[in-house]
Write a structure and sequence with these properties.
The protein is α/β, with parallel strands linked by helices. The protein has twelve helices and 14 strands. The longest helix is centred in the N-terminal third of the chain and has 34 residues. The chain is elongated, with a radius of gyration of 25 Å. The protein binds ligand 6CS. Ligand 6CS binds next to helix 7.
């Protein structure tokens, strides 16, 4: 018994001495690195060295577009690409996801940022670090032509109890509809635009609620099928930002600095106009306002 205690004390003593020695060596090494001007690379430096940035996105033209050959484009990715190119990261790779899977994918490290028209909202600001606002839009309702009801607001959807309303799965429209009093039992999650159109045609839903630019794109794509589009009157203009992991605020800040330069030199306006977005909407508004829960622009 005495031997056991003797050896245990010895082990404790030598562990303590070893611990102190390693800490000292680490301290000397760190001080040496600092003295030689070496420090741990920043997230941006790591991306610059790797040569590409991975962007989480859903396929929702004109916010995001994925060609038949897998090429990534659309307003968000084109803008994000321009920003990262100025930051010294030349290539942009897309990581396709459902809308609801974008934030979990970012937090799990499957992407370096989300550029998919993710609206800046108080709840999301708790989970990710948004850039300053980039793309803004109104909300719209898509319906088959000939809909006998005059539907202009989410409140109209709440009061017409026969309606089933399609909403992007994991998107803001579900939150807006619930807030206006539409019961969850009448909300139908829609995985993507074409599915929403088929659900409208089949009568599974009578209204499809989504951002106006996405709705217009679908109407153009399905022209001849007699869909009508209404701009929602009781929903604010929403603004999206590029989202980063909460551990990557340094990268987000570097991104914001370049985004501000592109807003000033005309590049931002050119990219947004090329995709039919209004560049004036985000101007003068901040992430801070939307994270606080700004009601309307
Ligand atoms: O951020 C959102 O919740 C929404 N943004 C877009 C571009 N489409 C779906 C979703 O509603």
């Amino acid at each position: 018994m005495r031997n056991m205690t003797y050896f245990s004390n010895k082990i404790k003593k030598y562990s303590f001495i070893l611990g102190i020695s390693f800490s000292f060596l680490y301290f000397i090494h760190s001080a040496d690195c600092q003295a030689n001007g070496e420090s741990r690379p920043t997230r941006l430096e790591k991306l610059q060295k790797r040569g590409y940035v991975r962007i989480g996105l859903s396929n929702e033209p004109p916010w995001t577009v994925i060609d038949a050959d897998g090429q990534v484009g659309g307003t968000g990715p084109d803008l994000t690409h321009a920003v990262f190119q100025r930051m010294g990261v030349s290539e942009l790779q897309g990581v396709l996801s459902t809308f609801g899977g974008l934030i979990p994918g970012l937090l799990a490290g499957r992407s370096d940022a989300i550029s998919s028209g993710l609206f800046i909202q108080p709840g999301r600001c708790q989970a990710v670090a948004f850039s300053e606002p980039d793309l803004c839009d109104r909300e719209a309702f898509l319906m088959k032509k000939g809909m006998p009801l005059a539907l202009k607001t989410y409140r109209d959807l709440a009061t017409n109890s026969s309606l089933h309303v399609g909403v992007p799965a994991g998107g803001t429209e579900e939150r807006e509809a619930l807030a206006a009093g539409v019961p969850a039992s009448r909300l139908v999650p829609v995985p993507d635009g074409p599915s929403g159109m088929i659900m409208l045609l089949a009568g599974r839903i009578q209204v499809y609620s989504l951002p106006a630019s996405s709705a217009q794109h679908l109407v153009d794509l399905w022209r001849g099928q007699n869909f009508s589009l209404v701009t929602v009157e009781d929903a604010p203009v929403m603004c999206a930002g590029t989202a980063f992991s909460p551990n990557a605020v340094d990268l987000r800040n570097a991104y914001d600095r370049v985004l501000a330069k592109l807003k000033a030199d005309g590049t931002y306006d050119r990219i947004l106009r090329a995709h039919g977005f209004d560049p004036s909407l985000a101007r003068g508004h901040t992430r801070e306002e939307f994270c606080r829960g700004k009601e309307s622009l």
